[in-house]
Amino acid sequence: MKILHINDFEHYSGAETAVDMLREFQEKKGIKTFLATKEQIGHLVPDIIKRSRCKKLYKKIKPDVIHLHNNTSIGLAPIIAAQKLKIPLVWTLHDYRGI
After folding, report:
1. Residue 98: which residues within 8 A CB-CB, separation 6 or more?
2. Which residue has the higher pLDDT, 91 or 12?
């Protein structure tokens, strides 16, 4: 199984620690994990470009599941791209910033 984790990583704090711990646990269980941040997806570009980058990333990695964490600086592009490619997505809100 392959899981792609996406987190904006605005600064390293609780959510980022949780993402790292989860990935470490999954890797120990034999699950292949990948991490994408706002640098790969883009945060200062239009949504259409973000969606395109997400689709390209998804097609390259071919994840079974996408786990979206905090995405305040990324927006909804990862969700829309996952829907278009019919890849299951789990979204964890680690704080209230995303609401």
Report:
1. 70, 71, 72
2. 91
CA distance from start to end of the chain:
30
Question: How big is the chain by its Cα radius of gyration, in Å?
Answer: 13
Q: DSSP letters of 42-84? A: -SSS-HHHHHHHHHHHHHHH--SEEEE---TTTTTHHHHHHHH
The DSSP code for 33 is: E
The confidence score (pLDDT) of residue 93 equals 84
One-letter amino acid at 27 equals E
Biggest CA-to-CA distance, the chain: 37
pTM over 0.85: yes
Cα 64 from chain centroid (whole Å): 13
